[in-house]
Design a protein that fits this description.
eight-stranded mixed beta sheet, 28 helices, alpha/beta, 45% helix
Length: 711
């Protein structure tokens, strides 16, 4: 792989003053792993990070599966004075860091550092039990959220369910007497979300430790205190986003921020900056504030909620391209006026208030409703609004979100700290510039390839001499996988590759002979292709589908035409399905988008990954559609600038389910001919994938699968 200028040159073993450097700490960590061995990509990444720490230059690192990137950034992080913050997108990676990687690293480097490094987990305030809220819940339960929130199909709770939730609430109170952290993840067995909400405190409703009667015992404040004293703080993208939007006073001050799973960050910031109005939320806020208001003021809130419910019932689901419909505009106007009147009536929280917690809760929700209503009425060009109506009818909402968060990231992500962003999916189309811009970095436009680069690409496309993939693939070619470095003002990039030999371990098969997909669901020809591939291997198939309808049709087809066990997402809990897929060697697991990233099944239980069509965003995805329309309006191609990069990230994540270990072998089959035939974006998408051996020949793919099935 081509490396940037930060990835070359020697790294000193010792830092000034005899302190160990990142290379020495990494060597100690790797040496402590049974059978552990140095990995060139891991070393290269650690060296580049140590250089970025010294220079203050931001770094994008693409590190393929199997690189060992966690240790590659944790080891140099221990050379930094003060806390280092590591942010992850998924709970799975956060758990891996906290439960496995960091304890193992601390054990290994203690003799080298002369002390045991410390680490802490920092979560949002609502993840911790709130003693003040728990104390108030004794009075709230008869008429508040536990017993009056609407059920998905409408109506209140039946008596048996109310009793079950009441028992869970009592268990929470018992647990509060014995827990040291108040962290929800440590409560086993857990409780329903609704019960937890009645005993936790969102940040916006918190009065602060100095005003709260339970401030000295606050679990959330204790977690922040631990984070301030730790060497490494592990948090999540959602809290990192809230911290940026709130002025960076939640996460402890730090000099180095490592953003793992960085391809997810922009979406998490978008979600954090999103706001919505629901009739049920307005109704609950009115009841909560009612004891503090005159009856006529509280009634105005109820009327505004009713008006919103009527407006949402009349409006079709989807993006509002011509401003707010009259009924929704009227509802927002009523809500803005009603919340302002209520806030004025409640007044400020004073030191001698008898119940500051409840007063702050009421004010916080009303203030958020007022701000959201004003934001929607403003109809700013930088915002996108839409009506949300899930098919199951569980909720209706009016939603607003920023058109882009690149400016927010440019302003708040990089200030006064060095940022290392890493993922297995950062180089889209063989370049870093697309993701760099999405992360708020200034990136140069793509340059035309040099004659040498063009010759290299041509040679790679023609085939790699001496490479033998899973099966003999005469007439096929190796996929292109080299990613050149990109750099811009204050940042650079690096692709450290992967220890896997993708061209020998796997085949990327594109069914180019199939008709271009045009209808929803699973086309008949694609279904027959799926049957042939699954039958050749004898199961062991992970099917990643673009819709629930397609997954359902695929499951019905394979069940009807074969004796193979088929596991379908939604029929059982996802962890149970994945466990059965791992244990039942001939099984197939079919599902939708949550499987594209959430499945890690190394070994021969998963030797065929089938993708039914390219995962472009649906036309009714409001944010993607609005962003594409904005690019079109500016004279560009919204499809190329927005839809294709989204598909590239999703496709790379899905394809990455196949090879999870050095001994894995198999085939990725894409049943969408456009990956081969679309001259505009097909090559871009292929360059975003690991460098599997590439073929469009069905006989080659089936032959490889038949040989794997017999092995």
């Amino acid at each position: 792989m081509t490396a940037s200028r930060t990835a070359t040159g020697p790294v000193p073993k010792k830092r000034r003053g005899g302190r160990p450097g990142g290379g020495e700490l990494l060597a100690a960590a790797v040496g402590a792993v049974p059978g552990g061995a140095a990995r060139p990509g891991q070393q290269q990444m650690a060296e580049a990070i140590e250089r970025s720490i010294a220079s203050g230059e931001h770094l994008l690192v693409q590190a393929g599966t199997g690189t060992g990137k966690s240790l590659a950034y944790l080891a140099p992080a221990l050379t930094v004075d003060g806390p280092v913050v590591v942010s992850t997108a998924t709970l799975a990676l956060q758990s891996q860091l906290v439960d496995h990687d960091l304890p193992r690293l601390a054990d290994a480097v203690e003799p080298v550092l002369g002390r045991r490094p410390t680490f802490a987990v920092l979560k949002g305030r609502h993840h911790y039990l709130c003693l003040a809220r728990l104390d108030n819940s004794v009075e709230e339960e008869p008429e508040d959220t536990l017993f009056d929130a609407p059920r998905p199909g409408g109506g209140g709770k039946w008596l048996g369910e109310a009793g079950r939730l009441g028992k869970q609430m009592q268990r929470l109170r018992d647990w509060a007497e014995e827990t040291a952290t108040g962290d929800r993840d440590e409560l086993d067995p857990g409780v329903d979300d609704q019960v937890w909400r009645s005993a936790s405190m969102p940040a916006r409703e918190c009065v602060g430790a100095t005003r709260c009667p339970f401030g000295q015992e606050c679990f959330a404040e204790a977690s922040r205190a631990r984070a301030r004293e730790a060497d490494i703080v592990v948090t999540n993208h959602s809290l990192l986003a809230v911290d940026m939007l709130a002025g960076r006073h939640i996460v402890p001050p730090h000099k180095l921020l490592v953003v793992d799973e960085a391809h997810e960050l922009a979406d998490r910031v978008s979600s954090a900056a999103q706001a919505e109005l629901e009739p049920q939320l307005i109704d609950r806020s009115a009841r909560r504030a009612r004891p503090l208001l005159r009856p006529e003021v509280a009634e105005r809130l109820t009327e505004a909620g009713d008006a919103l419910a009527v407006g949402l019932a009349e409006a079709p689901a989807g993006r509002l391209t011509n401003g707010l419909p009259p009924a929704l505009r009227e509802a927002c106007t009523l809500l803005d006026a009603a919340t302002r009147a209520a806030l004025e009536a409640i007044g400020d929280i004073k030191a001698d208030d008898p119940d500051p917690v409840r007063k702050q809760q009421a004010k916080a929700v009303l203030d958020e409703l007022s701000t959201t209503a004003q934001r929607l009425l403003e109809e700013a060009d930088h915002d996108v609004a839409w009506v949300e109506k899930p098919e199951n009818g569980s909720r209706r909402a009016l939603v607003v979100a920023p058109l882009s968060v690149a400016g927010t990231l440019a302003t708040h992500l990089y200030d006064e700290r060095t940022v290392v962003a890493t993922s297995a999916t950062l180089a889209l189309g063989g370049r870093f510039d697309t993701v760099a811009r999405a992360l708020g970095l200034e990136a140069p436009p793509p340059a035309p390839p040099s004659p040498a680069a063009a010759a290299l690409a041509t040679a790679a496309a023609a085939g790699r001499a001496g490479t033998t993939p899973v099966a003999s693939t005469d007439g096929s070619r190796a996929a292109i996988g080299t990613v050149p470095a990109t750099e811009g003002p204050g940042w650079t990039s690096l692709d450290v590759g992967s220890p896997f030999d993708y061209a020998r371990q796997g085949i990327l098969y594109v069914a180019a002979h199939l008709p271009r997909p045009s209808v929803s669901g699973l086309p008949e020809a694609a279904g027959e292709e799926l049957l042939a591939l699954v039958g050749a291997l004898g199961g062991r198939t992970l099917g990643l589908f673009s819709s629930r309808r397609a997954a359902q049709q695929a499951a019905e087809l394979v069940r009807a035409r074969t004796d193979l066990p088929v596991l379908l997402q939604g029929e059982e809990s996802l962890p149970l399905l994945v466990r059965r897929f791992r244990e039942e060697r001939e099984s197939c697991l079919f599902g939708v988008m949550s499987l594209w990233q959430g499945v890690d099944v190394p070994g021969d239980s998963c030797q065929l990954v089938v993708i039914d069509r390219l995962p472009f965003p649906r036309p009714d995805e409001p944010l993607a559609a609005a962003r594409a329309a904005a690019v079109d309006a500016g004279g560009g191609s919204g499809f190329a600038a927005v839809s294709v990069p989204i598909a590239a990230v999703r496709l790379a994540q899905g394809v990455g389910r196949l090879i999870r270990a050095t001994g894995d072998r198999g085939v990725v089959a894409v049943l969408d001919s456009r990956l081969e035939t679309a001259r505009g974006y097909g090559p871009f998408l292929r360059r975003s994938l690991p460098p599997f051996w590439y073929t469009t020949r069905p006989d080659v793919a089936r032959g490889a699968l038949e040989r794997l099935g017999k092995s």
